[in-house]
């Protein structure tokens, strides 16, 4: 049974990512640190799947990769030929192009395709977290506190160095997802959890103010991002409100059923919205008009390629990501944290 609250957090995170890329203002990262939340959710769901695997983590890994990679391959099937057609003077040798099949590092691209490739760091990082989760979960259950602290220490040492930095930045959030699934967050005294969360948030802000002059964007400051996101995730994964309003549940379900496609294609849609928006007079409405055009453009890959996520999840392929109308929403789980 799906957890509506986690689905709602993921949907909110995706919306925040779209808004940030359309209006790249630093305060959005403080209002809702979307990537940390997404990794926290991922850690919780991964722990849940591993616990249900009956000692067969390979089946869990295969299932997660099946859910993640086909939508990514669909993007590559469009973007790679388009880059070759547009001209790719610094095209790497073919072995590196295999990263478009197995994204264990940033897939290569040219300047023309930056809107499509610059967001792929999340796919790379998520893939590594999935692959590492069986051993990470084993380590966490033996040394929980140290397992959370190690990524925070690592992010101070590695700097901004690609996938290692991304794993360190969001590693604590992923592992706190394990704690959510084990019920450790729910068992923690509320004053203690609130103090820890407030301390992490304050430390992240202090890092920005005192140690990163000239930049206030958390995305550009990995240690601050790690601390601030961890504080938010501690709080968001502690609570578990009941969500039963049917229209809201249906929208959340639709977004989650197309989450990978939305994430992969939203930035190209935003990049194209200015050309298309100028042609249709979106400038009359300012930034909101261009955002509306971007969302309209995003419908194209959603309708053309969104069904791939249905097939990957072994659902009946659907043009529209809505559940069948008229059905009452499933009963909300009484305790999703396991505590």
TrEMBL record:
InterPro entries recorded: Acyl_transf_3_dom (IPR002656)
Domain Acyltransferase: 4-298
Keywords annotated in UniProt: Membrane, Transferase, Transmembrane, Transmembrane helix
Ranges annotated as spanning the membrane: 27-47, 68-88, 119-140, 191-210, 222-239, 260-283, 289-308
GO MF annotation, one: acyltransferase activity, transferring groups other than amino-acyl groups
Protein name, entry field: Integral membrane transferase
Organism for this UniProt entry: Phytohabitans suffuscus
Lineage, opening ranks: Bacteria, Bacillati, Actinomycetota, Actinomycetes, Micromonosporales
């Amino acid at each position: 049974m799906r957890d509506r609250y986690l689905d709602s957090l993921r949907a909110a995170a995706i919306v925040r990512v779209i808004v940030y890329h359309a209006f790249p203002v630093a305060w959005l990262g403080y209002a809702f640190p979307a990537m940390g939340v997404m990794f926290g959710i991922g850690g919780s769901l991964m722990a849940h799947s591993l616990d249900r695997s009956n000692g067969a983590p390979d089946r869990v890994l295969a299932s997660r990769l099946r859910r993640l990679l086909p939508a990514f391959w669909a993007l590559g099937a469009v973007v790679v030929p388009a880059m070759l057609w547009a001209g790719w003077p610094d095209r790497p040798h073919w072995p590196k192009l295999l990263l478009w099949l197995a994204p264990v590092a940033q897939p290569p691209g040219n300047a023309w395709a930056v809107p499509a490739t610059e967001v792929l760091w999340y796919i790379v990082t998520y893939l590594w977290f999935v692959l590492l989760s069986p051993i990470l979960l084993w380590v966490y259950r033996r040394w929980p506190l140290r397992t959370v602290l190690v990524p925070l220490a690592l992010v101070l040492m590695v700097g901004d160095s690609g996938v290692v930095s991304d794993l360190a930045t969001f590693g604590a959030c992923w592992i706190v997802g394990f704690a959510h699934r084990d019920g450790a967050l729910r068992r923690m005294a509320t004053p203690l959890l609130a103090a820890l969360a407030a301390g992490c948030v304050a430390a992240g802000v202090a890092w920005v103010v005192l140690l990163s002059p000239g930049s206030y964007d958390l995305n550009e400051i990995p240690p601050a991002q790690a601390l601030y996101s961890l504080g938010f995730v501690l709080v968001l994964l502690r609570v578990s409100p009941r969500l039963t309003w049917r229209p809201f549940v249906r929208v959340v379900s639709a977004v989650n059923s197309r989450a990978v496609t939305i994430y992969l294609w939203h930035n190209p849609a935003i990049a194209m919205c200015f050309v298309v928006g100028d042609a249709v007079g979106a400038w009359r409405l300012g930034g909101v008009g261009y955002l509306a055009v971007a969302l309209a453009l995003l419908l194209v890959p959603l309708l053309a390629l969104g069904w791939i996520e249905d097939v990957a999840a072994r659902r009946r392929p659907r043009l529209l990501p809505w559940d069948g109308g008229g059905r009452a929403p499933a009963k909300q789980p009484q305790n999703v944290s396991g505590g």
